[in-house]
């Protein structure tokens, strides 16, 4: 039914909006913590760069739309997608209320997999585990697009944070040793001034990378709903006002209106802000200075853009959190607050099964009510 399809699109956009304010902290926590920008200025920067980034490519959207659930085995109805999205929204709001930087990406993936499993009577064939091809970008499935990135992106974020921060510390140490004007430029006052300016660029880079990866996930859900509705014949006799829903291409294309709508909504969500999570990321894990914020943002954004290029729905939360950990470790391994890190890791571990479990239960309840 057309009404159910519209409800899926509405639920997807609600998730996108929540994703924006839930994950705002990922792109602006460090620039607020280092006092380079005020919270309001940082949110506006993040919203603008999120909007631009969301218009960059559709590889991640295509992974969500056709790379995780086998639509030949299970019919992905509008009701199933609404349950998946609702589960992801519920988990996002729970972790937001607790101030935990959990992954919206993994909440969505968990919700989609849990709902699909319930709809397919717990037949694990409904999930595409692994489909390999000669070219890396054509590989599909949970293994290539979720599991491997879920493990590798935090490791890469931590490692790159250590490398970039270590390199900057080595350069400053060398300038100190050189004496003269170089030593004066390496004093903390000038380092803070220089990297305070540089952090404006790295924060913008981080916002762009966040938009390029996170906004695409909802694009993929909306595209999946439309592809399924088209296959079921729901779009055969659309009223004139709903003609925009008819896909312009096949399942390899994401319609332009979907891209622009999701980009706008995540940007609006970002403009609301997510101060609870900003406090956790920006203040509780390790004390940050502008040079640390620059290193963390540059590390995380680089990981996100590489992942977006290969169509991997990587967690922005994982990449920035571990980059901050890596930067803190490079400064002083004993400066990290392990109790806060432990809470964050537990949120990571629980996200996919928790969101999946909620979605599974909702679909089963729906079937019982029918």
Fill in the keyword field for this structure.
370 residues, mainly alpha
The succession of helices and strands, N to C, reads HHHHHHHHHHHHHH
State the shape.
elongated
**Mean model confidence by pLDDT:** 83
How many helices in DSSP terms? 14
Walk me through this protein's architecture:
The protein is mainly alpha-helical and 370 residues long. The protein has one domain. 74% of the residues lie in helices and 0% in strands. The chain is built from 14 helices and no strands. It starts with a helix and ends with a helix. The mean pLDDT is 83.
Summarize the structure.
This protein is mostly helical and 370 residues long. Helices cover 74% and strands 0% of the residues.
Map the helices and strands.
Blueprint (H helix, E strand, L loop, with lengths): L1 H21 L1 H10 L5 H16 L4 H8 L11 H21 L5 H16 L22 H37 L1 H6 L2 H44 L24 H17 L2 H10 L5 H20 L6 H16 L6 H32 L1
